[in-house]
Amino acid sequence: ARPPRVAARAVRLCHKGYAPETVSIHGDSSCIPSGAEGGGGVYENSVAPPISTSTTYLADVHVDGYVYGRDTAPTRTRCEKIISELEGGSAVLYSSGLAATFATLFHLNPKRIAIRGGYHGTHNVAKLFHEKLNAGIIDLDDPIGPGDVIWVETPRNPMCEVYDIEMYAQTASSKGAYLVVDATMAPPPLQFALRLGADIVVHSATKYYAGHSDALCGVAVARDPNVGQKLLSERSSLGSPPGNLESWLLLRSLRTLHIRVKRQTETAQKFAEWLDSKEGGRAHGVLKVYYPSLASHPSHEVASRQMKGGYGGVLSIELESERAAKSLPGVLNLMRDATSLGGVESLIEWRRKYDDQVPPELLRISVGLEDVNDLIADFKSALIKVK
């Protein structure tokens, strides 16, 4: 049987009451160790966080409990502190988003996993639990019972469906099950899954948290601090912490999380509105636009209520033909033809290449930090070329 749920009111809203953008910069201030490398002064006096590359620590010092890098490390701890404060839980970093997914399911050891669509990598992990541990795989809305896990990806890749976290949290709580939310496409300040009742929220931190397409990492954040401690202990046995360089790159990126995500969201919304307009994208072969801010999107009402900080930087479109969808990425000048999302550069991909469950006419777009008018002009020119 699962332990009692930690009440939502027990979740910390933010470090000392500060706003998320302030927490992203100062939330790790308590992690600066006294007597750290350089005799203490260098580490303590540095404004920008230095990288700690050591994998092992002196036995007669053990500053702040550091012994061996597989267990804990200073730069990693600072990242975990910030994300813990942002999300309102206990954060544990991993070597990738899928490592965080695997570790979460390993800890919960579900009888069944209720899941629908979304990232194909998550389904591959669920299949491993089915094949090796006989965990059942059921649809998201199938009846559940004690020990089951409801796995909700919201917004869901690639068509940006938004699921009601509070509703699934109530269902999980009433049945003795767990709710895990994959919020990769909606990090703070867009959405706060733990406040809405999730037991654990996971992110591919490679995406928005790291945000520069240069650091592979993941994170699981538990509502219950006891679960967070167990995840931390189990990570050591699983051998899946991120490296010191990746942790430092993530720490650097967390400082600008708020301004990056807000700008990407604003640009994505303007871009989606142009794509959906009769004078814009629809005049040049765009048949459908999937973005939650649009009133035509099936999840618009839920997203408006749940995603208080905005709708994110990812959207998808369908063109008139598979040929056009496959050709368009190659004639764009600004958007890079590559998978992934959340980076400062805009990316576009023919999603069918990686996921055979999506329409062949579909393109997924991750909006970066470029000027929206430049993106629109480039996209319009490309649409004309492939029509």
TrEMBL record:
GO CC aspect terms: cytoplasm
Transmembrane segments: none
Lineage: Eukaryota, Sar, Rhizaria, Cercozoa, Chlorarachniophyceae
Family annotation (Gene3D superfamilies): Aspartate Aminotransferase, domain 1 (3.90.1150.10), Type I PLP-dependent aspartate aminotransferase-like (Major domain) (3.40.640.10)
GO biological process: transsulfuration
Keyword Ribosomal protein found: no
GO molecular function: carbon-sulfur lyase activity; pyridoxal phosphate binding
Protein name according to UniProt: Cystathionine gamma-synthase
Residues where N6-(pyridoxal phosphate)lysine is found: K207
Similarity remark: Belongs to the trans-sulfuration enzymes family.
Alphabetized UniProt keyword annotations: Pyridoxal phosphate
